[in-house]
Amino acid sequence: MTPRLTRKGLATRERILDAATALIAARGVAGTGTEDVRRAAGISGSQLYHYFESKQALIRAVIIRQGLAPPVPGQPIMGALDSFDALQAWADAAIEHQEHTGGRGECTLGSLAGELGPADEESRADLSVGFLRWQGLLQEGLQAMRDRGDLRPDADLDSLSLALLAALEGGILLSQTMGTSEPLRASMRAALAYVNSCA
User: pTM, whole model, 2 decimals?
Assistant: First the structure.
């Protein structure tokens, strides 16, 4: 549990998380040591361990922080995802971001999940919470669409929101691996077609 921190303490903790996130984006979890984070954040070892008792605690804090970030790196959530147009704009933003960055140099829930995998149960649970939050954002928008009559009353919002999330994460992974945005474009197109089939 994080102790109650002063404003200065909160700023120091954020600086440590900024440094850890940037290093993980560049080197991955395995290639990032606590000494690297300490140097990048410009703090002493005792300061680092005051805020994070171990590397695992630091990684878990990074996961939790990234789980609160928007589902498309570098992009704010463009209002509620509660219309076909809004979902299309969200998909377009994800594809544009992938084309611009190639997925390199990022520390996202997807990249963390790919590296940490199911072996680390605590990290897996934290990653799951982040993904469920993202699914919840999508589900809220779909619920509004169903309430408004844009989607059929029997539309399965769990299935639709999971399909959208899986299309994003799976598409990004394949796009990064294959060096082209086409897998993400195809997966998002298929997921949006699934949503449209419930109109």
Answer: 0.79
